[in-house]
Design the sequence.
């Protein structure tokens, strides 16, 4: 859907027995890193270091929104304003591509995100990153994938009734590393696809051509077990990292009830969760603005 494609970042004192923090080249960046080693565009990422601060840096992985239709929109992380807000605040920003739903259906996308997380941990020293301090954020479909990463950390398989999905892929790379993140900011991401049409969306998500049906490889209402396993709330447990959720209450595409539901599910499992409803906010407009970028930055500063 074209209208969905616009959707829409050490302190160590120098004394005997301590390591002197190093100053790295300001604003250093690496582009189009092949994090899966297979040469496809959906497996590229960029790393941007802040202009100020001491290495190693806490890092935030950023995932674009595209209704799961794009495999190459990592640059929009900065166009959205999210990437720059994090970079200016002293976080390393890692913007990633992932396979689109037309390249491969679910769970390929979360497999890619988990691979990228493990790649970053494996190569943290090379890129001046703190491997133990990795956050994740994204908007719309990127919010969904960020939330999936948050609730499925170090989980290899999802299972519901007699249906299973492989969350890491066959012979996963960097398997010795954790794919858990330490904090999540979800910007109006969908969660339970099955309820979207019942609570205010202007799009028919039950349709065969909807982003959600294409993602799971069939009509969501005819593939309820697999669709359930695409819901980040399904995996929520007390040990999940803290979440911050933003959602406009006038969102015409991903209905506001999705984040209400997700927030309540996380809270019911004992997950530290904050929810910021945006009065009058649409699908991006009114939500992705400086006021809320400041809240995102403060959240990551607290938890990373």
Sequence:
């Amino acid at each position: 859907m074209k209208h969905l494609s616009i959707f829409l970042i050490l302190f160590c004192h120098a004394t005997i027995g301590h390591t002197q923090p190093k100053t790295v080249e300001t604003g250093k960046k690496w582009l189009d890193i092949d994090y899966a080693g297979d040469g496809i565009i959906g497996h590229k990422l960029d790393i941007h270091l802040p202009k100020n601060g001491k290495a190693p840096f806490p890092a935030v992985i950023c995932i674009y929104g595209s209704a799961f239709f794009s495999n190459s929109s990592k640059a929009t992380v900065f166009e959205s304003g999210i990437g720059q807000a994090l970079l200016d605040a002293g976080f390393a920003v890692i913007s990633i591509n992932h396979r689109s739903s037309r390249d491969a259906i679910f769970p390929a996308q979360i497999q890619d995100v988990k691979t990228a997380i493990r790649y970053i941990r494996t190569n943290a020293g090379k890129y001046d990153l703190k491997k133990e301090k990795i956050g994740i954020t994204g908007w719309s479909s990127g919010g969904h994938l960020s939330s999936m990463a948050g609730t499925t950390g170090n989980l290899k398989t999802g299972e519901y009734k007699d249906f299973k999905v492989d969350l890491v892929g066959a012979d996963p790379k960097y398997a010795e590393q954790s794919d858990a993140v330490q904090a999540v900011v979800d910007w109006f991401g969908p969660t339970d696809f099955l309820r979207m049409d019942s609570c205010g969306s202007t799009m028919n998500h039950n349709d065969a051509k909807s982003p959600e049906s294409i993602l799971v490889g069939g009509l969501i209402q005819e593939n309820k077990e697999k669709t359930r396993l695409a819901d980040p709330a399904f995996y929520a447990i007390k040990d999940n990292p803290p979440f911050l959720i933003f959602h406009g209450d006038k969102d015409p595409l991903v209905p506001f009830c999705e984040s209400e539901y997700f927030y309540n599910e996380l809270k019911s499992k004992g997950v530290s969760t904050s929810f910021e409803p945006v009065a009058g906010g649409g699908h991006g407009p009114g939500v992705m603005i400086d006021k809320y970028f400041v809240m995102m930055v403060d959240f990551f500063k607290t938890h990373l």
